[in-house]
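Inputs:
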Amino acid sequence: MLRKVLVCAVCLCSLCLASLAEADKSELIYGSTKDIRDINPHLYGGEMAAQGMVFEPLVINSKDGVKPWLAESWDISKDGKVYTFHLRKGVTFSDGTPFTAQAVKMNFDAILDNRLRHAWLDMMNEIERGEVVDEHTFRLILKNPYYPTLIELGLLRPFRFLSPKCFIDGQSKKGVKGLVGTGPWVLSEHKDNQYALFTVNSTYWGEKPKLASVRWKVMPDHQAILLGLQKGEIDLIFGADGDMINLDSFDAIKRQGKYVTAISQPIASRAILLNAHQPFTKERDVRLALQYAIDKEGIVQGILNGSEEVASTLMATSVQYCDVPLEKRNYDPAKAAALLEAAGWKKGKDGMLSKDGQKASVRLYYNSNNAQERSISEFMQGDLKNLGIELKIIGEEKQAYLDRQKSGDFELQYSLSWGTPYDPQSYLSSWRIPAHGDYQAQVGMERKAWLDATITKLMIEPDEQKRRDMYRDVLTYVHAEGVYIPLSYSRTKAVHVKELKGVEFGLSQYEIPFEKMSF
Amino acid sequence: MNIKRYILRRLLGLAPLLLAISFFSFVIIQLSPSDPAEVAIRVNAMTPTPELIAEMRKEMGLDKPFFERYLTWLGHALHGDLGKRYVDGKSVSEELLKALPPTLLLAATSAVLMLTCSIVAAFVAVLFEGRWPDLLLRALIFLGTSVPAFWAGLLFIWLFAVHLDLLPTGGLEGPSSLILPAITLALPYISAYSRLLRNSMVKTTQEHFVLYAKALGRSRKAILRHIFRNSLQATVTGLGMSLPKLVAGTFVVECIFAWPGLGRLCVTAIFNRDFPVIQAYVLLMAVLFVVSNLCMDICAALVDPRLRERGLQ
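Outputs:
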């Protein structure tokens, strides 16, 4: 008798456990090497994907261009300086506060109050003021007809809306009282460096997510994340440029077949910057020779496991305004050698090039935390050695690497564009800021002043055709100067358990569309 | 009376030492080639324009002379305020206090593990000296000393968490999540102390008093107890340094096991060049070592009066 009771009890328990496990399947566990940190939408300290879950913009960037979001529609004045947004009615923040034009203005004012911190975004200098027209109409007045206005309003930060109840003295720059948005998710719990729990916003105005919650679990070690996936502790790994999962592990998992692997469309440009302000790379012919000296196909096949597309121009032709006919510079060591010889670089007995007693030696700096960049550098070292150029590769911590970008003390350095929807306007815009490696590398170019002025002009050029021509001129000039060796177009990668459905990639490499996922 | 004077003297000696430590931890950070204002801007993914750098320098007080900055920092530090983190402006003292308990828990568990395992291993090795259990233990000790923590940690996760599915891979989620990180952290210490204790016990076995005790016909258990007590000196001295080392040496283990402690706080700060956190961590660890050393000295002086005399001279 006792045995029967015991057997029944065990069966009941296992049934309960099974149903519990079933019930838990409405929670997605996402493994990340990074904590979400402070997701204040008006600052830059937090993880962008997490900011995007809670806070929403007026308009959104999609594959088919800019689409309405919290604004149902908008009118643009003829001179392109006044944008009138008609806000969606019935939207509330998750704390119950209605989303109105007053709330929009409060957010804009707080962002503009912190203008210095948004210097990377050209639009900051172009906004004159925001106005409340009525409860559901907001007007944005610009100084010039800045063409990427709508695209930049749709970015993950800073133009996203925080509940007015969270502001401190009408400001958000020195911290906020809460992290409440209008988005499909609510940040319910956050334990520093351990996990963050996002639950569905029950009052969400749009289509509610199918999952009940997303647990953002922090696992700082890349290998430990993979082991966590194998153990079933996490359901999804998602990331760009090897920051969550490296290509070898990705390939191994793909071969195993136990998990689903997915790869996005090309999203950003991977390139090597050639500093036109340094002795060896200041000559244009030398820079062009280096373009022919690198076997990009070899890098893509050998190091990137064929997962990316070889880039022949800095920007993919699919990027807006970048469909410019430019000469392709494929791997051609003979041509590279000829160019170097014409520039006066002669091979010595040791097989190394020299000119006026100077050896051909260059330094390539990379972020030491990125194993992939090191492998690519080593590959290039071999290619350049065959030509008689010594390549010293130096890995530096991220901050030291950024210090070097600013000082311009490098011949070669890694460069990764920001990807859609930031390319091309925000990326080109950043070329004019001295703290960026791009600026430092370009300083040695003859027409750098013209380049910067043209970029400034094209941002506020109202005529579409003229703007297109200006983009063409800028991209053609930079290509002709050879300050970038385009390598490949990078992609975002995802690995997840088979039960998880609806894993898609957003338009930008920084967002994760959790709201489309389900079990 | 004597012991009180000894302790007082040592405590008085501590004050200038701590002051020097605070000065060095402040200076070391100032020697860093990066400009703290720029770092504070970049760590938040903002572009360091000249205007913003100027504003940030003013906000952070970097426009003031070096000694003024040091004295301000010291004054605040004495009141328990170690500044604000660059990353999110949170109080460094609060963040350190939040991260301290998990690290102390991990270090304490590792210390218990370390003591238990090394004593047991040393006894087994001495009892079976020169025979297979001794040889096996020596091989394991050799292995334990040579395996780097990051690799051992990953192997443990693979075996116990993934393959055997007995324990979680990481995080601080209940008592079971403590086991793997504690073993990984304790592993090199277990090896070191087992060897140390074993060797001194083997050496003590050859002492005359052991022979004398054997000749007196004392029981094996009693003799072993005497051997053990007389072999402890080197181990106790070593422990004085190892206990704070356990707290300070959690960097790798905490990162692999996603343990939310001091080590991870500091590693993140180092990567971000979050100077106030690094500075506070260096200060905290230096104080920990100094205080722990002092405690061990006082313990030793309590046990051995000769040390007290020497200390007072």
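Remarks. Chain B is about 80% helix and 0% strand. The two ends of chain B are 15 Å apart (CA to CA).
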